[in-house]
Design a protein that fits this description.
Layout (H helix, E strand, L loop, with lengths): L5 E5 L3 E6 L1 H6 L1 H11 L2 E7 L14 H4 L6 E6 L3 E2 L2 E2 L5 E7 L2 H9 L12 E7 L2 E7 L4 E5 L3 H13 L16
Antiparallel strand pairs: 1-2, 2-10, 3-7, 3-8, 4-7, 5-6, 8-9, 9-10
Helix pairs in contact: 2-4
Length: 178
């Protein structure tokens, strides 16, 4: 098995590799640059604000998402699950964006979307051909990749190895706590 990556089964047919969160979060711009070059769309989660009957919905992170609203492909209001998360909360909104030059610039210029912050949308997820490819569960500090290509594997292993401090542990396989 590759160093820094753990393999699991996801829904029976897909393979998940858990990436080292600390390395990804510390090098988020490189990861977002790579992801925005190899994926065709991405989503983020935000909160639906009152009044709930306003169309389009008012959301907590509208201000930071304003500059890319022209690339919004779909907005699902009231979602209770998305890659890596299930919740009983009824006021979550999943915004799906097409990756374009503008959204790439936004992603790379944005503060770290892998870190939990009240001022940022959460749980960024990248898609290839409409299928989940790379996703984060921000509050759990987890980042997973599904069915990585050889190029993906090479990128993440190289990133992990180049950022290793030599102290061990940074690129060791991560196993969830029981």
């Amino acid at each position: 098995m590759l160093e820094g990556i753990r393999e699991d089964t996801f829904f029976m047919y897909k393979t998940i590799h858990k990436l080292d969160y600390s390395v990804i979060a510390a090098n988020y711009r490189q990861v977002l640059q790579y992801a925005s070059t190899t994926a065709d769309s991405f989503s983020v989660i935000t909160d639906h604000l009152k009044p709930y009957n306003v169309i389009p919905p008012r959301c907590k992170h509208d201000e930071i998402l304003e500059s890319i609203k022209g690339n919004l492909v779909n907005q699902a209001v009231g979602v209770t699950s998305w890659p890596g998360t299930k919740t009983s909360a009824r006021h979550k909104v999943l915004n799906l964006y097409q990756i374009t030059k503008k959204t790439k610039e936004w992603l790379i210029g944005c503060p770290n979307l892998f870190l939990l912050s009240e001022s940022l949308p959460q749980d960024i997820c990248f898609y290839r051909k409409g299928e989940v490819w790379l996703y984060s569960t921000t509050h759990e500090k987890e980042i997973d990749i599904i069915n990585p290509t050889d190029e993906d594997t090479s990128f993440f292993v190289q990133l992990c190895q180049s950022k290793s401090t030599g102290g061990g542990g940074v690129c060791s396989p991560r196993y969830p706590s029981d």
